[in-house]
Each structure stands twice: as C-alpha cells, then as structure tokens.
Amino acid sequence: MDQHDISLTVNGQMVRRRVAARMHLVDFLRIELGLTGSHLGCEHGVCGACTIRVDGVALRGCLMLAVQADGCVVETIEGMSDSGVIADIQEAFHQRNALQCGFCTPGMLTSAAELLARNPDPSREAIREHISGNYCRCTGYHAIVDAIADVAATRRKGNAA
Length: 161
Fold this sequence. Notes:
By secondary structure, this protein is α+β, with helices and mostly antiparallel strands. The chain contains six helices and five strands, in the order ββαβββααααα. The relative contact order is 0.15.
C-alpha cells in the first residue's frame, strides 16, 4: 500500500504520521487521532456531518485526503469546543433545543461558526442558506436557525456596548 509521511497541526498540536495515500482526512482524525466528533455520514460531501476547518475554512473532511492536509492547520469540533471559540453557539443550541440525536451537531456548529465569522448580522434566510449543506434529520432546522440568530444578536449587542 502506498504510504506517505504527513505533518500537520491539529487543534494546536503538531502531528506527524505515516498514512495510506487514499485515507480521507476525517478517517485520519477519527482513526489515527481518536478525534471522533466529526462524523461520517454520506461520505460524498453532501450531509455535512464531517465538517471541519482546514486553514481557517470549513470544509468536508470526507472529501479531502489526509495527505492533502500535509502542512495545514486543522481544527475539529473538539478543538473549537476546548478553546471556547464556539461556547456561545453551543449554549444557544442547548437553550434552543437545536440538537436532538447530535449526529449533525459538530458539523452544524462548525458551519455556524464560519457563517458568524464572515457575517455578524446574517438574515434568517442567509442562515438557512449557509447551513443548507448540513443535513439534520431530527430538528426541522427551525431551532438551529433560531440559535444561530440568537448568537448573532447577542454578539452584536456585546460589540455595541
């Protein structure tokens, strides 16, 4: 099997491993590093359950090979949660009951964080559009949109003070 040495930063820690050329990044994170917050759903980049950040951009971990992440900075839901950068989004999801089974939640939180970083005042339509690539079979999305809108409003109020 074709193996490659890779070196990347994952959640602030330098990681070096030898990986199969065809190993997907999300499989690398889950299997090699034990970071199981990013889920495998469709394995076609459609469901959003594997959403992570690579070099600051949210993307689908099932569509990127681990060897393509060589030299990159990768942030998983574990790293974003541990750093506190998404604490307000997590709290809003909890308060609004915007999660049920939790399978989509890591990807949804990652996508919400990306949206709010790009657009601190998104309309409900912009929120729906941004999270449209993250499938949720439980909630119907209303509570998720409410939670993201709440965070945006709270952040705007905090910045105005």
